[in-house]
Amino acid sequence: MPTAAASEASGREIRYVQVPMDDCVVALEQAKYLFTEVLDGRNAYLTDGVQRALGRAPRDFADYVRRAAASGAGKGTS
Length: 78
Hints:
Blueprint (H helix, E strand, L loop, with lengths): L1 H9 L10 H10 L1 H7 L10 H6 L6 H10 L8
Helix pairs in contact: 1-5
């Protein structure tokens, strides 16, 4: 689960919080565009976009958060 990977890599608690169903329904109704056009299936396959944009293969999310945590990303400045 991405929250566990981010939590472990950052050394900070990152947890999943369940959204109440009524709030979820309202948010989904407000995001109709997302579900009717963006997630209509045209994006249901992998492409080489990361490779073309960055000139390198994509990285695993868990690897990303470990590197970000090691660099100090996400640490507050206060």
